[in-house]
Amino acid sequence: MGSFPIRLRRSFLASLCLIAMLLQTGCWSKDEIEDLSISVGMALDVADETPIEQKMSKLGSNYRKKDFITYTLQIVDKQSEAKSGDTKSDATVKPYVNISETGDSLFEMIREFAVRLERPVIGQHLKVIVINDKLSRRYSMNNLLSFMLRDNDIRPNCLVVMSSGTSRSVLEAKGNSIIPSFRLIGMVDNRYRTLKILPPMSLSRLEGKMNSKSSYLLQNVIASDGEVKFSGAAVIKGKTQKFKGRLSEEELLGVTWLTGKGKGGPVKSYDPKTKQMITYELKSMKSKIVSHIKNGEISFHVNMESEGRLIEEWLVANEPIDNEFQKRAEQTAEKEVRRLVKLGLHKIQKEYKTDVVGFGTRLRIQHPKEWKKVKDDWDNEFSRIPITYSVKLTITDTGAKQGH
Length: 404
Prior knowledge:
Low-confidence stretches: 80-88
Largest sheet: 9 strands, mixed
Number of domains: 2
Radius of gyration: 28 Å
Distance between the termini: 95 Å
Number of helices: 13
Helix content: 25-40%
Number of strands: 13
Mean pLDDT: 86
Oligomer: single chain
Order of helices and strands: HEHEEHEEHHEHHHEEEHEEEHHHHE
């Protein structure tokens, strides 16, 4: 009798273990990954039917639509299968497939892929959306991204960039080892090495910009023969939410100094005494915008500061780096930064009349009453406001090569 409770406890524990094992065998309503088309990239272009679509149209395979947009999806191909159906891997096969559809409804086009693909398309792993600047000049970002913002399958941290060429060419790669969408995400992580890469603009951040009718920048990307490069930035005007123009790489550098949101990068200048090249590598940067109201007139001053190292210099006869040379290096680097800031500020303030830096935000915080008077037509007001700036760079490290 005394052993019965022990056997009962053992039987109870064994039953619990068996139930736990059954519950951990998998999901009740799982979808095997091999049975899905996982989209990782999306490209939007001005309507241009692909050769495949043209052939289908001739065969009478068409539906009622207006040809406004060419919508391209990048789908990760199954790594376990070659195109021939062989179960062995094939090094000559690209790890992705791009498929395009032309129409006027993005949701309808993605559903149209259901009659062209053997597996349903899912968007939970979408990494990047590339938008052609010509398309953005015609249609507002609100219209182009309405479907993505409403679709629960698409994650709000998806990266959005602009292309100055066809967007679908950005989703092509030379060779067979790279998935282009993943490459773009990896390139954004290089921000600590250059000021030419903007802070990533996700769908969620973009939604806030659109709802507030703010002007903003999107990273511009160019593509050629399977190679891509981040080159400058696209300017989106707040009121229209359409593409206004492009910043060159130098103009983008100037705007980045104004915002103080860079993580790292070089400033190349030339020593006025020796005429030789000097390179300053920034380790930190910050920018402070101060708004002033005097006699009812608005003005701004931007104070930019940075600490960094003297990373490269071409001195004649291997002269030592003394305090005089270091001071000269700081001054010539500051002069170069002021040149870049002047270029960027002129473009956004005088040519595009778009506040992509955040001057309006600073005015709203520091002088809310004055902001209420000008907020309805802020971009035009911004284009007329005097803006001054100062630059202070400090060399804290000259590397292993020191003065005597």
